[in-house]
Fold:
Amino acid sequence: MKIVYCISGMFKSGGIERVITNKVNYLVAHGYEACIITTDQAGRPDFFPIDECVERVDLGLNYDQYDELPTWKRYWKTWRLRSLHKARLEEALKQLHADVTVSVWRHEVGFLPDLKDGSRKVLELHSAKDTAVLMYPVASKLRRLFGHLRVALQERVAARYDRFVILTHEEQPLWKGFTNLSVIPNALPFRPKQFADVSAKRLIAVGRMEYQKNFPDLLHIWSRVAPTFPDWELHIYGDGWMLDSLRRQAEELGVASQVTFEGAVSDMETAYASSSIYLMTSHFEGLPMVLLEAQSVGLPAVSYACSSGPRDIITDGEDGFLVPLYDEVAFAERLSILMRDEALRTRMGKAAEVASHRYDLEVIMPQWLELFSTLSSSIR
Structure:
């Protein structure tokens, strides 16, 4: 059986690139054929190491050449390029004799089901259903209106695929009426060699310094808690356009001496393991890999119960605490409980590590193989 993944390129350090790398490496290691078709690789090296047995095809389209153009001109040129994309992708799939072709919602998503190459078509959604709405503040009414229109369009696109795969059971009821729906979460990218030192007076949060991750709320919460725990520190990992404003906010809230902005680092396993509690205050997620990674190291977590992911990952009161979205007071209370009680952190941390095995690659990939086998056998 040959499985083909379509993506812009494998040169970025993003979550989807890492997920695809793990999948194709697993497939070829277990006797399957795997191929990655890119549109914008342009000879750039892969960020994550990909097995040499994985076949590679680049269509040479380079959509990213239009990234710096004005919006209207970018959309026009991108639209014109898609007809060439469609022809090249169909020809490539015919030559590859693919059994299953997978889109991760890139430029091919709208036309992939139309291609007559004989493969079954699978669509993966790596975000919450309402991301196009939730990515804007409530006050941005016009942008949220357009977001609802985009979600409606996404529904029409997803319905055309042989199989549509989402990440969380929490989101399953939102796709009511979809007979082609499956739920398969992403797998953990690594099984750690280190485990959290829950005696450390160190909190950790990880993410891009952008609207979605909602670090302003985290700093507000920390300003409620920090004066009571002067020997504790909050360490935030990641970069982004909000970094300077977050530094100023920490100063204004009087917690700058207890907050360290670590930037982006490559050795996140050590960063998790040197901490004792993981914190997440996102407006929305898909399936937050940082939360899974923190669990695997044995970190109890306190998280907003945002859409989507935390409810699937955390069992409230057992391996962490789920807090109603935007309830800063409740978040501060749960955090204080954990900070005061090392025995509770130890118990929850052990439970978190055990729970994380639900997301091991050896657990998740057989679910994909069963789906691929079912689709492939239905061709014959």
In short: The chain has a mean pLDDT of 95. The CA atoms of residues 5 and 36 lie 5 Å apart.
